[in-house]
Design brief:
The complex is a heterodimer of chains A (about 270) and B (about 425). Chain A has eight helices and nine strands. Chain A is α+β, with helices and mostly antiparallel strands. Chain B contains 15 helices and two strands. Classes of the chains: A alpha+beta (about 270), B mainly alpha (about 425). Chains A and B meet through helix 1, helix 2 and helix 8 of A and helix 7 and helix 8 of B.
Chain lengths: ~270, ~425
Amino acid sequence: MFPWTDGFHWTPTHIIFLSLFGAALLAILSTAVWGLWNTLNAFRKHLAAATCWRQNFGELPATERRCRHELAGRVPSRLCDHAFDCRTCPNYEKLAALPANAPASLAGVSYSDDLLYHRGHTWVRSDWDGTFAVGLDPFAQHLVGSPDAVQLPEICEEVESEGVAWTMVKNGHKIRVRAPLAGTVISTGGPDRDFYLKILPHGQPNLRHLLKGPEVAGWLAAEVVRLQMQMSNGKTTLADGGTLMPDLMDNEPGADWDAVLESTFIDR
Amino acid sequence: MSETALIDRRWIARDAERASTARFLLWLFPWVCLLLLGIYAAGLCFYYGLNQTNMDNRFAFGMWIFLDLSIIAMGAGAFFTGFLVYILKQTDLKPVLNTAVVVGLTCYSGAVAVLMVDVGQPLRAWFTFWYPNTHSMLTEVTFCISCYLLVLILEYIPVLVQNRQLRRVPSFLVFEHQAHKLVPVLAGVGAFLSFFHQGSLGGLYGVLRGRPFAYRQGFAIWPSTFFLFILSAIAVGPSFLMLVVAAAEKITGQTLVDFRVYRKLGFISGVLLAIYVAAKAIDTYVWLNVTSPRLGFGPWDYYSYWPFSSTFLFAATVPLGLLPAILFIVPRTARHRGLLLLAAALTCCGVLLNRFVMTVQTLALPTLPFDPFLKYIPSWQEVATFGGVLAYGVIVYSLSYRYLPMFEATKGEAKNVSLD
């Protein structure tokens, strides 16, 4: 087998045999090394968060992949196939120009027309100094209420779009909140302030992937329906017209909160 | 829900329906006991040596080798399904791909574990790599099986990191994404390695000139058994896969894959089995009429020792070969799930019988006028060790089914998501 093995001869048969096995072993080892190397590279080039997000997105059921234009009532039915990244969607301009017809009810939750909203239930506000404030949206606040613990990134730390912006713990559940945009953290707030993070993006960010206007109402309506279904454990659903109760995690401890939080913060 | 059940539930895929923790533990209990008994028996073989078995210098291949050959053949579903999906683009078999990987991994790792005990000197197991016998088919088998086990481990990792909690670790998720790009390469390498080691397992019997019952003529350096073992392995692989999925469906009470997948696996198995039966018939004819007489043995010299009558030859060829091939191929019978599964079971039994005959009957039959007919009954340690491997396979598959998206990944696959 090997040149140092008794019985090995430099004959074509032995050489072919050795080469074939050497090639097979090399192929196996090099594919393993290639996989590890690319994984390390993805982290080094800040592509890991995007890759993880796309993997997560691929796991979402169709009901949670509805296009913003469907939510806004611009088209009857449309699933997103761009991982909610409207910046890469070739149909965005065409569909955004259609008239919106979103539901008016906001289930007792107030949303601002001045803010942009991320599907992971964060809002983004553009501040005068070129930074962007990020906070937890009212829907998520109604769910989580007052978190037991919050772990915010360090000042000057980089966050990646769709990566983990901060984590919270509530009733033993670890919640990872996705960053709606990439940049450097220049200030941190928390549940007691009106923002969680202030982010300085690299250059002028394109925020087309964030929801605004009538899309928010449609999205919220869909989220409330989803929440009702999950909290009723697939049995009966609540009647329309109610408002979202505050501190739901404290008030309804028996619900399947793992499932609810995974869907709410898109962290499957 | 108790705290333990809640923690257990967090490891199970979100939309997957699984048994309660208590029920699952109850299912595992007898298998864990069998595994522990197997480990104890293997420990005895390690501690006291191979005198714990009923093998000896004449009967050096026993139950372990027979079952090793059988499970390696049945594990061929892993490489063959990978080859069909990634190389031949038969993507409709994707729903059973994860199962094929787990079945292959358990079959091959189980076989390697038993071989470690069978070697008798496990501390010197590495000698086979460093001081290989360049003239032995077993060298090729050892190298191929070891390399292919590496391939199966690499193929299993992306399945493993799809676990609900492991997915939360970003590096695992990124590696899974990268690993998926590599799987076609691994499928190709796996097919190459499996092709050779399945063949060499047959070849090692076919080259035994001193054993006319096994000796065969062939092509170049490969006896006909080399090709017959490959054919039978790729025929039985899909059949065994069908049986595993059907067993999982029966135990869990869920429909896991579409019936069309069964039909396709059955058709592939049937066509290959038909080719195998035809090749085997020609091989047997040449062996009985040309090869064996040249070595001084008539056909009935092999079949006059009880229990090895000609019934074995007939059974392996017709009811366990031709019949399942017909059941698989004829559309009228292939439409019935029960008949498909019966055909799959018959195919597996046929390959088991073939491996038994090649291993045990070959060594039992006398080759010289003064040789006695040898009898061999495995010791309890041999049976228990293999029982341990069986239990290991069931436990690994059960855990994989419970905690990994074995079928869910393809059920809810987002078809139009671009990942690059």
